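re: that chain from earlier
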Amino acid sequence: MRFLIILLLALLPGLASAQGIATLIADDVQVFPDNTLVAEGNVEALYEGQRLRASRITYSQADDLLTIEGPITFQQDEDLLVLADQGEMDPRFENGILRGARMVLDQQLQISSNQINRAEGRYTQSYQTTVSSCQVCAHRPVPLWSIRSTRVTHDELEKQIYFDNARLRVMDVPIFYLPRLRVPDPTLERARGFLTPSIRSTSKVGTGLRLPYFIPLGDSADITLTPFITEKSRTAEFRYRQAFRKGSISAVGAISSDSLKSDADGLRGYFFGRGSFVMPANFRLTFDIEAVSDDNYLRDYSYTGKDRLDSHIGLSRYRRDDLATARITNFETLRNDERNETQPTVLTEIDYERRLFPAVIGGELTLRFDAMGFYRESEQISVGRDVNRLSGRLEYERDWISRFGLLTEAAVALNYDVYRIEGEDDANFDDQVTQLTPYAGLEFRLPMARSGASGARHVIEPIAQFVWSDNDSEPVPNEDSTRSELDEGNLLSFNRFSGTDQYERGARATLAMGYTRFDPDGWSLGLTVGRSFREEDLGQFTETSGLNGLQSDWLTSIRYDSGDRLSLIARGLMDDDFDFNRAEFRADWDGPRFNLGTSYIWQAKDAEEDRDEAVSEWTVDTRYRLARHWITDVDWRYDFAADQASRARIGLTYRNECVTLGVAASRRFAYSDSGNDETTYDFSVALNGFGTSRGQRSYARSCIK
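^ sequence. v structure.
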């Protein structure tokens, strides 16, 4: 029979200072006249969240000491577990000695020793210790890695582990020795110290070791410093983060002294910073800064593939029925075929939109006002012009559903734009241009659904839309509508230009058909076909946009979704002869061991869109678990027009309960006449069990052969 004894303060005066109650459970409990208590058989002692299990516990009130016979299991919360053969501890489990002991932190890091001492309820010291997070089996008695030390001290309050005379061994082979070593325990998320190092080798910079050092700055800020030294470069990288009560800021960057540029004078580097803050009245302030010392620095060091930098400061608010934004952006091009003097380097945008629902007439009324300004440094005619635009839009729409299920929607809109062109005279445009653009449209939809005998549901929806706008327009600079393409998103739009500098004009009709099959097994198949017809060809669109001529190209789109694993989508623009101007295909597979994302895009050449050659590219992004501990990933892009790869990367990762090894090779290809191909190799090793490494237990190896 099991006994439950609650040892009150009167029975154990030694606990009075702790102001707690100890609970003892055992098969047999005896109390002797000399105030000695003996508990035997499946003994459990609990005190303030701590649990001690043993085969026998003897408590002496005179010595205020527990004598414990094993096997012993001592657990404190979920993060600390101690296994031992025998020991002595005080009733509060604050001080004591455990012999033949093994301590486990976060169910991962194991500290094995002949003896473990507990002191002040905070420190756990072990002597002649072996530390590892690798699983040891009878057929695998040697851990993959271990640290042997004459003394190991675990500070439970600071969550730090201190080693004296630490010797790192890999497969029991000594690698290096440190007289003193401090590492965070697995439960600590932020602690000063070195992070996982990595070796990087690039064809331009050379080979070097990246050794990040993390420095917390209080509870809400930190900085990471990473030296990277090669035979050609001396680089210091940094990352800074800080959180505030209503926002946060972060910054990354690097400073280099290298021999890559013969004409380089002084240091090279880059700085990317960003922030976001909540402001009064539900506004949000955002900003980012992007700066680099020269056009080739980011590419030389493989920090990012960006070839245009954008720095901005903005204020925005988004609510159910209105939005308001203001933003200033500074652009800097790093491309060889572009000049910052003739690009719109400063862009100012102000936008306000509000929705109203008038009760008298019903429907929805939308009001929009926006202002935009483009500034260029150059004063050359035409290419150096500065443009400012002020626009207003009023749109009203309402829909009805007839008794036969016909959905009818009517809409009218009026756009008002004022342009101011400044700078040197440009014969193409007046100094100030005002234009008024009205729209009117009528749309009919007749969705129909039917269920088959197998339980599949079929939905078909024919659509007819009629839109009118006037044909008159004044020539204005086109800054934001240089690329337009017919797709599912704008098939039924009033204006199918990508921006607002150009409006689609004239009368047109659009006919479309949508079909979707929903299978009871969870998969679905969809098809969309559409085409527009114009009263007059005004020559507004490019040849390959799919929108030029009296009749647009046929827009076709096919979608398949298996419901849990596979999704496919194919879309294209083709003429009456079934010749494609644009085509795109994408497939995604999400499986337990294999993930794949692949796409193919083809665009015909079009001089009006600055595309002298056809675009034909295939991209692959895949991840495959070769085995429980092995994962490989591939990122590849091939340019069929140039008949060569433009980007390739392959990575291999080995991960188990005690180590993570990663190796990757990437190559960025340049066209044959540039000779600027770049190859990068990365290698990293992380010993799991130190710092925040939760989640690695899912990769634990089994002791079963």
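Confidence is low (pLDDT under 50) at residues 6-19, 671-675.
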